[in-house]
From TrEMBL:
It comes from uncultured Aureispira sp. This is Crp/Fnr family transcriptional regulator. Residues 148-221 form the HTH crp-type domain. CDD domains: CAP_ED. InterPro entries: cNMP-bd_dom, cNMP-bd_dom_sf, Env_Response_Regulators, HTH_CRP, RmlC-like_jellyroll, WH-like_DNA-bd_sf, WH_DNA-bd_sf. SMART domains: cNMP (SM00100). Keywords: DNA-binding, Transcription, Transcription regulation. The lineage of its organism: Bacteria, Pseudomonadati, Bacteroidota, Saprospiria, Saprospirales.
Length: 223
């Protein structure tokens, strides 16, 4: 991919708007772009490649493994997001990232990012702000487990999914169904059976409609 094309893609990410032209060129020239198919692994635990990733198209699932080796899903990201940033904090994150659907990812070596961070205070602040936001996102999820019941967690997850991934069509919010009920259960700390039960009840009540391909969010505000 030519440098000019890479620059165009990088300019779509807000976090790079504080870079100078020379810094943008440095990032573009050292970046690589790769397509992934659904369920392809993108980043492995402990990010041994020391890479920062930019999600250009599609969406991904971010998770980690418990001490017992069980898979835990933390959150999903759509295009325009950055992941792998925890390598900047301690270089020892056990997160993994998998393509939730076909996607395109830009990879940046951490040495280049750290060099620019050391010379550009605004970029340094932006990167560590991103890390802080991700940590708060996980803290928010933990608070939900403590203070909210499973039904509320699932409904609020659907609301967030609609806001971040949905598209308005015919007075409906349409979300591509790229997650299984088991995965929604992991993201909301509930079981697959509970997710199925709540989705079916919401469908009967006219709050949502869904099939194997999409979820139509009709009215979740009055649940």
């Amino acid at each position: 991919m030519q440098t000019l094309t890479k620059l165009w893609y990088l300019e779509q990410f807000d976090i790079f708007k504080v870079l100078s032209k020379a810094e943008m060129n440095q990032v573009a020239e050292t970046s690589t772009h790769k397509p992934y198919k659904k369920d392809d692994p993108i980043m492995f635990p402990f990010n041994s490649q020391k890479t920062i990733y930019l999600l250009k198209e599609g969406c991904v699932k971010v998770g980690n493994y418990t001490e017992n080796g069980e898979e835990n899903l933390k959150y999903v990201l759509n295009s325009g997001n950055v992941f792998g940033e925890m390598a900047l904090a301690d270089g020892n994150s056990n997160d993994f990232v998998v393509a939730a659907e076909s996607c395109t990812v830009c990879s940046l070596h951490i040495d280049v990012i750290q060099q620019i961070m050391s010379n550009n205070k605004a970029f340094n602040r932006a990167m560590y702000k991103l890390i802080g936001l991700r940590l708060r996102k996980v803290e928010f999820q933990m608070a939900q487990i403590i203070y909210k019941d499973s039904t509320t967690r699932i409904i609020e997850f659907l609301q967030t999914l609609g806001k971040e991934f949905g598209k308005h069509k015919d007075n409906k919010l349409v979300v591509k169904k790229f997650l299984t009920n088991t995965e929604i259960g992991k993201l909301t700390f509930t079981s697959r059976q509970t997710v199925s039960s709540v989705l079916n009840r919401l469908k009967r009540n006219g709050n949502i409609d869904y099939n194997d391909r999409v979820i139509h969010i009709l009215d979740l505000e009055k649940v």
